[in-house]
């Protein structure tokens, strides 16, 4: 295909991808599935790889890839990011409405919105291009977090119209992403985030955008700071205008005319806040008409035309009946408080993780204690504090057992780590948890093989490792309780089907510490086969954009264990797919022709040719007009001259390495 056609296609693809992003993130109405979307993205990456000079910062491919910073630069806000004054009850709201009414001197319409529990940011667009994003800071000066905001998929890198706009919104982490992140941190012995807000704040202020990118942040836009457009007269209009521009605007809004309507909006969301996928800490009430807002003005701290109704923090008192210890799939032994059932925010809490030994000690939580319980960030129950004044003297101080409750082997805590672990690979609790993980959705997804069936199989000594699942026979299963001919056939069919899961699923299923679904996908994409992945070294891994040092270490550790390797060999022999399917594979240099000339330093000639071919490139020996790139080493000779004559792109070795890295390819 000619350059002109390719350029046309690049433009077309970028527009299409932006449109799909808009439909997905803003309208919540996608018209293509993930696979189709991935295909468009892959095609664009391929074309941009062919023409790296055409990559622009607002291309949908350019979200991550910027370098680590050592600190954040201060940014002065053109219009300050004020905070809101609070109302804690109906009376204070009534007073707010009266005050507004008095100043407005005309009937006032309000807009009620959810108050997201994250952190305020400002997104600056110039001529429709996202040029800078910043935190609130003290309201007047924030910090430049542009590179981190670019990693949030719901932040458009380019608006649908070339306007200047300073949009204001809240960056947050969903309850699910928060729970996943803390689970991972717990396994890794890292300190936990107390709630989704802290997690979002900690994630957006990362010096390395790669880390932010892995944190699944989201955003809702709720207001305008500055804009070049003058025709908007109400807050509602500004929201729908921003939505048209492609921003993910807060959809939970309602116009209200009376205090009764405002109150019923508050009551509705007080009752429903638990069912929302993200945390809210109140309701914001704003004056709709901008002319009235202007008339009311602001104090140095907050506008007079808006108020935040804050939900009361709900806590309960419960008694610690027992402190048990659980063993996870990686052997982490965690204490768990068993509580008298207590109703908090609409659901019954009867257990709370105590995370580790130090946590129990620091909070002085004893068996038999009365404790204050709340839902951290509205999601996960936690013990706020114990109530020593209510002790009877019969309470027991908890101490970590010396041996694993499941296998009786000694458990240990490495120096400097908070987590205590059972190191026995054969520990039945770990075995059980590993199998649950292996068969779960996102992993090998074996329908019908849930925790109860796994327990049955373990009890009957039919399985030990994941490989044993693929050796199960009809006559073995049918003898199990609650198994009939039909359910046996179904389970065997589901097991058979799982052999064909993608390499990413399999990598995730192996339960490598810190390797979640996303990292697994990334590893599968990069290495293409299990064989390559298991021979990889630490340096190769850390070159991948989204793989951090800890994950890299964990992957290397996993594959240096002989038991793990034996398991993989067995799975392969039993017919489990070990390759990235061709359709999933991104051959990043597909369609490009390379010539290598001169003496190289970093690679041998054979190595560089293998690298290129593995990425789908053609390697030829002579330079012609069909050559896309010539890689030159020392003393290149006539091929170099020819390349210059023909105007072919020339890369020295270092430039070639940078080029690969820019495309997210490793080597
Ligand atoms: S409007 C000038 N609307 O609450 C008024 N704020 O103290 C600007 N927040 O840090 C705020 N949801 O980030 C507004 N729907 C919403 C909001 C919201 C959350 C945050 C905001 C600010 C704090 C107010």
Question: What does it look like?
Answer:
The protein is 37% helix and 21% strand. With 667 residues, the chain is of the alpha+beta class. The chain folds into 5 domains: 168 residues, OB fold (Dihydrolipoamide Acetyltransferase, E2P) (Beta Barrel), CATH 2.40.50.140; 234 residues, D-amino Acid Aminotransferase, Chain A, domain 1; 74 residues, DNA polymerase, domain 1; 71 residues, 5' to 3' exonuclease, C-terminal subdomain (DNA polymerase, domain 1, Orthogonal Bundle); 80 residues, Rossmann fold, CATH 3.40.50.10190. Helix 17 packs across helix 18. The mean pLDDT is 89. The site of 2-(butylsulfanyl)adenosine has 16 residues, from strand 3, strand 8 and strand 11. The site of 2-(butylsulfanyl)adenosine (IVH) has 16 residues, from strand 3, strand 8 and strand 11.
């Amino acid at each position: 295909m000619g350059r002109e056609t390719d350029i046309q296609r690049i433009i077309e693809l970028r527009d299409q991808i932006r449109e799909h992003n808009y439909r997905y993130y803003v309208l919540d109405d996608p018209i293509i599935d993930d696979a189709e979307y991935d295909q468009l993205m892959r095609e664009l990456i391929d074309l941009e790889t062919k023409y790296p000079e055409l990559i622009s910062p607002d291309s949908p491919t350019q979200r991550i890839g910027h370098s680590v910073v050592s600190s954040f630069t201060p940014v002065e806000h053109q219009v300050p990011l004020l905070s809101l004054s609070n109302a804690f009850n109906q009376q204070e709201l009534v007073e707010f409405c009266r005050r507004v009414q008095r100043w407005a001197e005309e009937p006032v319409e309000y807009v009620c919105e959810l108050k997201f529990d994250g952190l305020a940011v400002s997104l600056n667009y110039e001529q429709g291009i996202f040029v800078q994003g910043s935190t609130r800071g003290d309201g007047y000066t924030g910090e430049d977090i542009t590179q981190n905001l670019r990693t949030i998929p719901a932040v458009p890198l380019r608006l649908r119209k070339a306007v200047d706009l300073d949009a204001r919104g809240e960056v947050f982490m969903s309850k699910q992403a928060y729970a996943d992140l803390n689970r991972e941190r717990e396994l890794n012995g890292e300190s936990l985030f107390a709630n989704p807000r802290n997690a979002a704040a900690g994630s957006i202020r990362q010096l390395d955008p790669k880390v932010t990118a892995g944190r699944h942040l989201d955003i809702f836009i709720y207001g305008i700071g500055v804009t070049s457009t003058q025709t908007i007269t109400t807050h509602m209009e500004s929201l729908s205008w921003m939505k048209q521009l492609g921003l993910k605007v807060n959809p939970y809004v309602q116009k209200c005319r009376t205090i009764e309507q405002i109150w019923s909006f508050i009551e509705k969301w007080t009752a429903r806040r638990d069912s929302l996928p993200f945390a809210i800490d109140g309701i914001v009430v704003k004056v709709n008409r901008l002319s009235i807002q202007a008339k009311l003005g602001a104090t140095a701290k907050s506008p007079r035309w808006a108020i935040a109704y804050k939900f009361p923090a709900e806590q309960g008192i419960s008694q610690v009946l027992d402190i048990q210890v659980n063993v996870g799939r990686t052997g982490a032994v965690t204490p768990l408080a068993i509580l008298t059932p207590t109703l908090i925010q609409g659901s019954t809490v009867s257990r709370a993780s105590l995370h580790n030994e130090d946590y129990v000690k620091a909070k002085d939580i004893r068996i038999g204690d009365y404790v204050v319980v709340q839902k951290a960030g509205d999601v996960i129950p936690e013990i706020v504090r114990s109530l020593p004044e209510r002790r009877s003297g019969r309470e027991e101080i908890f101490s970590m057992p010396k041996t694993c409750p499941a296998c009786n082997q000694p458990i240990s805590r490495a120096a400097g780590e908070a987590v205590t672990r059972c190191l026995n690979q054969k520990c039945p609790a770990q075995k059980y948890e590993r199998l649950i993980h292996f068969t779960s959705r996102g992993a090998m997804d074996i329908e019908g093989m849930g925790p109860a069936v796994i327990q049955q199989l373990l009890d009957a000594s039919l399985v030990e490792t994941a490989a044993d699942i693929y050796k199960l026979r009809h006559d073995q299963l049918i003898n199990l309780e609650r198994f009939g001919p039909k359910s046996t056939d179904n389970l065997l069919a589901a097991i058979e089907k799982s052999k064909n899961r993608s390499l990413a699923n399999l990598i995730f299923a192996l339960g490598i510490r810190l390797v979640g679904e996303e990292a697994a996908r990334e590893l599968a994409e990069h290495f293409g086969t299990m064989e390559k992945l298991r021979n990889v070294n630490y340096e190769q891994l850390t070159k991948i954009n989204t793989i951090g040092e800890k994950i890299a270490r964990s992957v290397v550790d996993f594959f240096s264990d002989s038991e793990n390797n034996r398991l993989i060999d067995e799975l392969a022999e039993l017919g489990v797919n070990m390759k990235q399917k061709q359709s999933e594979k991104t051959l990043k240099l597909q369609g490009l022709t390379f010539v290598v000339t001169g003496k190289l330093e970093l690679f041998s000639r054979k190595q560089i040719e293998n690298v290129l071919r593995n990425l789908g490139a053609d390697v030829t020996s002579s330079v012609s007009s069909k050559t896309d790139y010539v890689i030159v080493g020392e003393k290149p000779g006539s091929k170099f001259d020819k390349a210059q004559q023909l105007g072919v792109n020339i890369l020295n070795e270092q430039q070639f390495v940078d080029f690969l890295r820019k495309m997210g390819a490793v080597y």
